[in-house]
Design the sequence.
């Protein structure tokens, strides 16, 4: 029951982006701001203390640039993984404000269908898509030989991944949506997961630290 963790997983959100500042929905080309790069530099120094053996990053520009800054400081291998990309909303919402009518209409329909993992509004990732990607990440982490693995990803997808870990791979669309609304992450905030490979009673995946951003000086913190 009180097993020793076999691996430590460090899950990091990318630095601040232009769309974060504008409070609009992003696509895969959104870039880091100067402040976002400073955040990544500060986290990179902290990452040396975390001592990852490998960094695996989303292929989206904002995550890849964040990961590259961290890799330059840590000098560990850097790999790309498309499964770590952000949850993609309908293309009709790209560059639209969070509080736009289009956004409110979409989210109204989303919450009406919260219990249906196969529901889709238009061309966005649905819950089933995100669950499959989360399971792919969990399988990859389980199979890798490194004991300290750092992932660089995105706010919404990190919430979905944590939910899938909490439910040990079971489908849980309602919980996933509520967890996403409940959790808020800072840019370059890091969460730490212990993986207990041989656990038989408690979860194999256990959240040890959520959204630590103590590496950021106050002037670089953006979470409100």
Sequence:
């Amino acid at each position: 029951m009180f097993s020793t963790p076999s691996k430590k997983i460090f899950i990091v959100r990318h630095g601040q982006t232009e769309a974060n500042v504008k409070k609009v929905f992003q696509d895969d080309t959104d870039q880091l701001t100067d402040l976002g790069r400073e955040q990544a530099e500060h986290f990179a120094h902290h990452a040396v203390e975390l001592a990852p053996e490998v960094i695996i990053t989303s292929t989206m520009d904002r995550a890849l640039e964040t990961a590259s800054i961290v890799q330059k400081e840590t000098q560990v291998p850097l790999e790309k993984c498309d499964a770590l990309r952000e949850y993609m909303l309908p293309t009709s919402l790209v560059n639209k404000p969070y509080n736009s009518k289009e956004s409110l209409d979409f989210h109204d329909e989303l919450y009406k269908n919260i219990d249906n993992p196969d529901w889709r509004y238009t061309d966005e990732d649905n819950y089933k898509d995100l669950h499959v990607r989360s399971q792919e990440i969990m399988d990859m982490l389980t199979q890798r030989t490194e004991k300290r693995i750092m992932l660089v990803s995105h706010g919404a997808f990190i919430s979905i991944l944590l939910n899938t870990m909490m439910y040990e791979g079971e489908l849980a669309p309602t919980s996933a949506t509520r967890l996403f609304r409940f959790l808020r992450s800072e840019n370059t905030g890091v969460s730490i997961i212990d993986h207990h490979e041989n656990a038989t009673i408690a979860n194999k995946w256990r959240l040890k630290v959520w959204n630590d951003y103590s590496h950021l000086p106050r002037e670089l913190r953006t979470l409100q």
About this structure: DSSP finds seven helices and six strands in the chain.
